[in-house]
Input
Amino acid sequence: MESAKVETSSSKRLISALVFVVLGVAVVGTVGFTLHALSADPQAPLHATKSSETIVVDGKTYPKASVTMGVYADSAQAAEDGYTLNKKDYVQYGPSTHLILPAHTYVTMTIHAYDGGEELNNPYFGKVVGTVGGTINVDGVDINAVAPDKVQHTWTLHGIPSTSQDPLFVNVPLPHVDEGEDGFLPTNDPGTHNKGHTVVFSFITGGAGEYVWNCEYPCGDGSYAKFGAAMSAYGYMSGKVTVK
Ligand SMILES: [Cu+2]
Output
């Protein structure tokens, strides 16, 4: 009798353990599926345009490619520039937050930047890092930093911890558009119809890899120290870079 009792309780324990495992698998599966759905591209990826030209940097010849993006205060500004891809009226990059760049290539990126700004939390992100020549060209002038209180957003590209892909780090501070009492003031940049700044810079990609970029300017709403809303939603102020 004594041993039968023990058997019953141990088989009960086995069943409850199995139920626990099945429930655990269901929970992990659901979370995994949800995360996968969340990490799907919110917009069609933006492919860099390859050029037939090459360029020599530090004695090495690279093929060239280019890509153009915009950063906007809201959906209305994005629509003026032809992009109506995000659902929420947040600050946003467009036309896509997933860039696809060729490997071992001199990539020239143009960002048309239309937003105002306040001040960076961390002045480090006011410095230009990782571009060819250590500069960015703003409305025709080369600079290597933007004052921390003159930044609208940053385009900050970095790797994920990995030993299997080449490192890639680029930090580009985008200077803000001045604001008057009735909104944005005209700029001296015909490239944006005097509504923003045209920022051009180049960097050299390594081998194939997956990278991420985000804005380091706290441009979300008041929740989470301005890291809420656009800053914590995917597809506005952050995205992916695939090098292949
Ligand atoms: Cu931002």
